[in-house]
Input
Amino acid sequence: MSSASDVSFLSPRSATLLVAPLGALLILFFAYPLVLTVWQSFYEGGFTLRAYAELATSTLFYKVLRTTFVISLTATLVSLFIGYPVALHLSRQSPRRRTFYLMLVMLPFWTSILVKSFALTVLLGHSGIVNQALGFISGGTIQFPMVFNRFGAIVGMINYLLPFMILSVLGSLLAQDGNLARAAEVMGAGPFRIFRQVTLPLSMPGVIAGIIINFTLSIGMYITPALLGGRQDMMIANLIDFYTRQTLDWPMASAISVVLLLISGALVTILGRVRGGAGVMGVAS
Amino acid sequence: MTRPLRIAAVFFVPVVAWACYLFLLLPSVIVFPISFGTGGEFEFPPRALSLGLYQQFFTDAAWWGAMMQSLMIALMTALATTVLGLPAAYALQRARLSGAGLINGFIMGPLLVPVIVLGLGLYLQFAPWNLLNRDISLFLSHTMLAVPFMMISVGASLRHLDPTLENAALIMGASKPAIFFKVVLPQLKAGIAAGALFAFLISFDEVIVAYFVTGPETQTLPVKMYSAMRWELSPVIAAASTLVTVFSILLAIGIMMLQRKEEQR
Output
């Protein structure tokens, strides 16, 4: 189908003209703001490394960085351990039923993160149904503080991240040739062994891609830690907002953004190297 | 393997899966009953049913004004991404451009950069131009953010297109613009519609960039909801959440149906 006539139907000249308006928009309102952020982090009336020097000695920055990594890693790993069995469940359904179950995964994916955060504050709150259920089971003795602390932030992030993990793993499970597992079964392997030696190793590209996607999304998260976390759970994005609006220190905000940009840039580059990474991006979006 | 272990293994996957579906769905569903409560305190199940929160939503200009603002910006974003994205997607598919891979990567860029970084960058850009708290800056920012979704959607339908039809039309003497409008466009309808709904939803739900570039006069519904949750804890949030959810789910179902239609071709 992709014959030579396919790609030479338009001349390079007219193609350039068709791409140009979009290119202009992205140069002006995507590339330029990024360049401006980098510039702002070095320029305060003259070239300076003040913002970076201040970052390097800021205990607040290190604390936030550590919090961000701990929360992101926890949320990513928990979503892997929940998401993997779910992907397995989806991969074993008939296409018809899979479409239905995927709807259950995708519909919340499309609802606003604000709505989900709000709902979680109600569900996990001190008189929310989770605590009510715990109280009912324990006869009124157990009540956990589950929101406006790290636990709440992590639950909220897992809720947001799970669909990305599920889709990523599902992709690599569906790509497997079912005959491999059948062959292993014929040769006498039990379900556990088939899983450990055939299914799991073959799904590793999806697992790794899912981990990188979830971690990258996590370290940039803003809304969930702000609404469900406590004061101690400020993450990088919240710190950027803090320097932009509270202290009006734009060079500091920019320098932190550059750090975040470098970390997520490195992660996206690794993702591109992982086999199937590009395909996953398409599915996830 | 012992019998209890085998039974546990058989049940483990479906139990985790169903618990997960519940965990994913519950937060989106629970706002419906809460929104029909009386609003003294967020509670589930509500003690008495009332439409009071909706009445407050639609009589308070700060709330429904924010909703109208969101709808307007989202509509403009959907139109702009279509007008800009469609020709670009077609050109990238039907011409041998040097650096096409690079251009494609650049167009997908807004998906890969943390939104908070773009929010700050646009804030730094619009502040000295005196464009903060203006519709135009929000509209341009959202168009930038939504473009990749239009490109993915239209790109997918373009790949299903048989180029021999275009060549046949060319041989029969049709001009290239005529071919685009009479041969290509009708076949892309589902992809374009899905892309436009995508773009609409991205803009309608977007909080972070809007939070950075809007002000009191240009506040969108998500920004209003965010500040209501952070500072006021107004019970109207429940009604706003329900309206947003109904809207998002309708759009999402529309997108999924259009995508399925596309796959079945």
User: Anything to note?
Assistant: Residues 61-94 of chain B form the longest helix (34 residues). Chain B has a mean pLDDT of 90.
